[in-house]
Amino acid sequence: MIFKRDNLKLGIVLGLIGPALGLVVIYFVRSDFRPLTFIEYLEYVFTNNRLITSIGSLSLLANVVMFTLYVNTHRDKTAKGIFLVTLLYGIGILVLKILN
């Protein structure tokens, strides 16, 4: 199975997909976003300085779960890829917060 491989590229791909799925889950779980379309939700999150950090941090929880799973199963190359992308997402969130 693909998720049992220990590969840096796999970690990077999983690291990119995790926060995107986190954003989708937050959109469907939080009832105050339901009146908005998904595109309006994304615009609202990325333009609201308070929401950038809170929603961004929550969406990165998917990467934390995957990182922990891969570290605990000794697939360190994949974990490194997930960690690298998580750092890049975190830096991006900080840059968005500063520029807004």
Model description:
By secondary structure, this protein is mainly α. It has one domain. The chain contains four helices and no strands. α1 (8-29) packs across α4 and α2 (38-47) packs across α3. The protein starts with 7 loop residues before the first helix and ends with a helix.
* Beta-strand fraction estimate: under 5%
> How many β-strands, per DSSP?
0
- Using the CA coordinates, give the radius of gyration: 15 Å
Number of structural units classed as domains: 1
Largest beta sheet, briefly? none
* Class from helix and strand fractions: mainly alpha
Average pLDDT, rounded to a whole number, is 90
Number of helices: 4
Overall 3D shape: elongated
User: Uncertain spans, ≥5 residues at pLDDT below 50?
Assistant: none
- The percentage helix is over 70%
Distance between the termini: 42 Å
Strand-and-helix sequence, N→C? Answer: HHHH
How would you describe this structure in keywords?
single chain, 100 residues, mainly alpha, 80% helix, elongated
Show the helix and strand layout:
Layout: H1 8-29, H2 38-47, H3 49-72, H4 76-99
